[in-house]
């Protein structure tokens, strides 16, 4: 069976579907459902992370970053965001650095969401 990514070759610059494909064992409807969940969930996760960061609620920033890991990992983004997520989970950086990490997470996730939407439409 062809991989999902072969449906839209070259479009995926950020997302990596190999983990989903491994889990799905060839079940394309499962793969599509997981991608759809990411598309729906990630804006909410980002909004919560940004809200807590703006409020200076760092225990909640830490929790929000940890909560986002499964969504990010399922599409292979954890390697691209490893430094940023670890810094937010440990709060081991200056405020301005953490702020840039939040912005980077948002940018990468937004771009990955755009890729995921295109992928979903390619079915």
From TrEMBL:
GO terms for molecular function: protein kinase activity. Keywords: Phosphoprotein. Residues 27-123 form the HPt domain. GO terms for biological process: phosphorelay signal transduction system. The modification Phosphohistidine is found at residue 66. InterPro entries: HPT_dom_sf, Sig_transdc_His_kin_Hpt_dom. Signal peptide: none annotated. This is HPt domain-containing protein. The lineage of its organism: Bacteria, Pseudomonadati, Bacteroidota, Sphingobacteriia, Sphingobacteriales.
